[in-house]
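Extended Data, panel c. Modelled sequence:
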Amino acid sequence: MASPPITNAPPLGIHAVGLRRFFGLVPAVVDITLDAPAGAITGLIGPNGSGKTTLLLMLAGLLKPDAGQAWVGGYDLAQQPRQARAVVGWMPDTFGTWDALTCTEILTFFCRAYGLSNDVARQRSQILLSTVYLAEFANQPARVLSRGQKQRLGLARALVHDPQVLLLDEPASGLDPRSRVELRDLLKALANAGKTVLLSSHVLSEMDEIVDHAVFVSMGRSVDLNTAQAAMAQHSWRIGSDNLAALTGFLDAHLVPWQTNHGQTDEVTIDLPSRQEAAALLRDLVGAGVDIHTIAPMSGRLEQAYMALNEERV
């Protein structure tokens, strides 16, 4: 019998409903629902033990869910597992390598496993090594690579078959600052080319700069979308002035609630929903003659949302 038509899933993205996975009596994923659209980067955010890696393994077709449904790249994971796996590029948080093989040999092997001819596999390997800035190690054994370089090799391996969907578990782990910037630019380029990118990371400041959407998970459950959006809308700013009395007087006169920024005698913190409102407030302060030496967000929106939603710490 033919599979029923997909009516709710994005044709080339990820759509999952009610995913659940236990290991014996231990719950790893209890109830996760998410959408990761094609042509965008979606961040998977949650504390250690919240089920992120188990979720990615299920979406990669490497673990079977106990319950729930998922479509990856337009394919039903339960009904069309081979087709779904064929369009997925999977990058685990630690990429195990065969240390005696060269970088080219490792990538060529995976290219051949996906059915590419030997000549195409070698050409593809060279292109990918250049893409992840490992061309100088093409003929070097993997054992000479640092952890960060092995992470880049792992990303190249995930891209060997030009997948439509990328699942990346802590892809920036072990990368130096320059490599993190290069990773960010590469992922943006892939998303702009129409790929679906779902990644988890604990570096929320960098996630803020790269992700188009975010899915929050807590204790094996996805956080209600409205709750997550409300938390992400909160944005605390710190404002500093050499004349703190003038600053607080202006804020009081304009009914803007403020708090003392602990440890800073010349700063206060306020909540503003957007950068536009922060810019408007700064214009008004300067126009009123209040000298401002600092105005900056306390932290990124993802970090604030994470802290607001992270019930495990309560």
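The chain has eleven helices and 14 strands. This feature is highlighted in the accompanying rendering.
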